[in-house]
Amino acid sequence: ILELVVSAICIHFLAVIMMENDMRTQPPH
To answer: What are all long-range contacts of 17-22, with beta carbons under 8 Å and residues at least 24 apart?
Structure first.
């Protein structure tokens, strides 16, 4: 169970970082 929680947290942080990078690289029109 702990492994699933850790993997979910890692994926969540990776998704947040990717979203932030996309927003920074692509300014809203």
So the answer is: none
- Measured distance CA(29)–CA(18) in Å, rounded: 19
pLDDT at residue number 12 = 95
One-letter amino acid of 1: I
Burial class (CB in 10 A: 0-12, 13-18, 19+), 7: exposed
How far is residue 5's CA from residue 12's CA, in Å, rounded to a whole number? 10
pLDDT at 3: 93
Rounded Cα distance between 1 and 11, Å, is: 16
